[in-house]
C-alpha cells in the first residue's frame, strides 16, 4: 500500500468566494476528505473507532499554506499521508493539486489527539497502530 492516499474532489460553487476562488477555510474541508479516504483505504472507519473503541480523533492543530488558488469547477487531487504517529497522537500531511496539470495549490497538516468520549486523551488502540506507517513514539 502506498504511503499516500489520493482522492479526487471537484470545487463546487459553494466552496468559492466572490472572486471565484476557493475560500481559504474550505481547504480544511478538502483535508478532511483526504483524511477520511486515507483511513478508509486502510480499513478504518471513524464511526467504528468511536462506537467500538471509544476512540475519537480530535483536531488539536491545523495549518495550511496557500500556493495557488483553486477555482470553481477545478478537479482537485488530494494527497494524504501520516507524517507522524505516536501513542496518543497522529499528524496527517496533505497536498492539494490541480488534477489537470498537477500544480500544487496548497499544503498543510493536522495534528489529532486520540481521546475518549469524555474528551480525555488516551492511547490509540493497538489494532490501529499497525495501520500507520510511521513509527509510534513513546510520548504523546
Description:
The chain contains three helices and six strands. Strands 1, 2, 3, 4, 5 and 6 form a six-stranded mixed sheet that branches. The protein has helices at residues 27-41, 46-53, 126-129; strands at 5-10, 56-66, 75-86, 89-98, 104-115, 136-137. The chain has a single domain, classed as Hotdog Thioesterase (Thiol Ester Dehydrase, Chain A), CATH 3.10.129. By secondary structure, the chain is an alpha+beta fold. The protein starts with a strand and ends with a strand.
Briefly characterize the structure.
By secondary structure, the chain is of the alpha+beta class. It has helices at residues 27-41, 46-53, 126-129; strands at 5-10, 56-66, 75-86, 89-98, 104-115, 136-137.
Topology at a glance:
Blueprint: E1 5-10, H1 27-41, H2 46-53, E2 56-66, E3 75-86, E4 89-98, E5 104-115, H3 126-129, E6 136-137
Parallel strand pairs: 3-6
Antiparallel strand pairs: 1-3, 2-5, 3-4, 4-5
Strand content: 35-45%
Task: Say what the CATH topology is.
Answer: Thiol Ester Dehydrase, Chain A
Number of domains: 1
Main beta sheet, described?
A: 6 strands, mixed
Sequence of secondary-structure elements: EHHEEEEHE
Shape: elongated
**What separation lies between the terminal Cα atoms?**
26 Å
Please mark out the parts with pLDDT under 50 across 5 or more consecutive residues, or reply none. none
Mean pLDDT: 92
Helical residue percent band: 10-25%
Number of strand segments: 6
What structural category characterises the helix and strand content?
alpha+beta
CATH superfamily: Hotdog Thioesterase
Architecture per CATH nomenclature, i.e. the level-2 architecture: Roll
Q: Count helical runs.
A: 3
- CATH class equals Alpha Beta
Based on CA atoms alone, the radius of gyration comes out at: 16 Å
